[in-house]
Amino acid sequence: MRALDVAIIVLFLVGMPLLGVWIGGRQRSATDYFVSERRISWWVVCVSVVSAETSTLTVLSVPTVAYGGTMTFLSLAIGYLLGRIVVSFVLLPKYIAGNLITAYGFLGKRFGGGLQSTASVTFLVTRLLADGLRLFATAIPVKVVLAAYGVNASYWAIVVVLGIAMVVYSFLGGVRAVVWVDAIQMLWYVLGAIAVIVVLSGKLPDGWFSAAAEAGKFQILDFAASPFTSPYAIPTAFIGGAVLSMASHGADQLIVQRLMATKDVRASQKALIASGVVVFLQFALFLFIGVMLWAFYKGANPVKDLGLNNNDELFANFIVRDMPSGLSGFVIAGILAAALSSSLGALASSTVTDVYQKLVRRPMTEAEVFRQGRIWTVVWAGLLIVCAGLFASLTRRGNPIVEQGLSIAGFTYGALLGAFLLGLLFRKAKQTDAIVAFVTTVVVMAFVILGVKFVGPEAAATLDFSAATATSKPLAYPWYTPMGVLVTLVVGGLLSLRHKGYTPPEVDEAVSVKAA
């Protein structure tokens, strides 16, 4: 790592927040702050959605998947696209036509404020943990770069600096700044990936492509893997991936907030469906890099043969050691860009709209909502920094707790999406039914994720709360969300049978008519 590379990284960390403040301009109202008066172009929102769902771990880990295996990860991306199509025509019309600020506002209109607050708090806790881990992961390559220059900075110091970079443009620029900075950062790390491919192309021997093809590295569909334990088996990837995407893009305020910043339902639908296509191409790009790295290192084991701490260091190792000066810094900045997509606006909007307004029990003026939005943006920034610092203090690299943290959404996504579908499919369901079903689902999924294992070649189901091993594997994570949705619908549907003659609030009918 050379001085030019460090200069590029520093320029990026300083320039992006300032650019976000300039793009965001002066915020005039709470609606402008949270959803930018619903006037952002669909293609900008599309790119922002892709950036928001891409983390440092994605950029660093996806090439490793192809390096050690094949390109079957793409089958999961196909499921993701199918799920976005369903969300586009089932849930998005409810949000946009209802003039809502958060996705959970629909639950408030359909069931009541109790479920709206329950879903919002669940989102807040899940997002805090997930983004705290994401911020900590971003600090890892920064620490490596600083160590190369003899600077022994602590993880706490690094996450504080990164957190400040995020809060500056989120606080001053609102969602408009977040969306545009997301779009720019996504283009940055994609250009970085293309630069890696160009450099690798000049380093690989003739015939590497045909050798990779003969080794099966370009396989996309896997018909032989177990659908219970492999996330890339066809039914797991298509069905599980689709329902997982329905939850992440239809019931997670991080994504929904960006989609609601478009001018109408049609624009939000184009943004969401197009994002599925872009994600597929993005995954293909990074998987292709993984195959090229396999050819470059001749399939060497990253830990045993290359002396790395874990497999996920492979891509970063190539960037630092084998990329030319200047390009190396550009690509590292792109990796940071994948992690600095801010969720602070989504956390603040959900806190103020779904929780704070319910607690004060009085109508709030536009100015009050706007002021509280900015206050909670700063509060959540502080909590994210603390959460990331705790991950740094309590987690050792390679410790399984990191993998558990990355799949934490599996505990709650099924309950969140299930609550939305319960309101749409079971017209007699009331708020109490939904809350009981919601809590039951979270408990059941915790039991399944932590305790259910599949043993042996025939994948016999057993109950074992110890850590997973090569012979005792957990349920493939794409199934977590479909199972959670099923539990919510079964419990909530059965409870709703008690209410004979009940009809849901008329406001839901009005929104449905307007959406149609």
UniProtKB/TrEMBL annotation:
Superkingdom of the organism of origin: Bacteria
Among CDD domains, the record links this protein to: SLC5sbd_NIS-like_u1 (cd11493)
* Key words, A-Z: Cell membrane, Ion transport, Membrane, Sodium, Sodium transport, Transmembrane, Transmembrane helix, Transport
Q: Which PROSITE patterns match?
A: NA_SOLUT_SYMP_3
Spell out where the chain crosses the membrane.
Answer: 6-24, 82-107, 155-179, 186-204, 232-251, 272-297, 330-352, 373-394, 406-426, 435-456, 476-497
The protein's location, in the record's own words, is: Cell membrane
UniProt membrane topology term: Multi-pass membrane protein
Keyword Transport set for record: yes
Residue ranges annotated as coiled coil are: none
InterPro entries per UniProt: Na/Glc_symporter_sf (IPR038377), Na/solute_symporter (IPR001734), Sodium:Solute_Symporter_SSF (IPR051163)
Query: What protein family does this chain belong to?
Result: Belongs to the sodium:solute symporter (SSF) (TC 2.A.21) family.
State the protein's name.
Answer: Sodium:solute symporter
Please name the source species: Saccharothrix mutabilis subsp. mutabilis
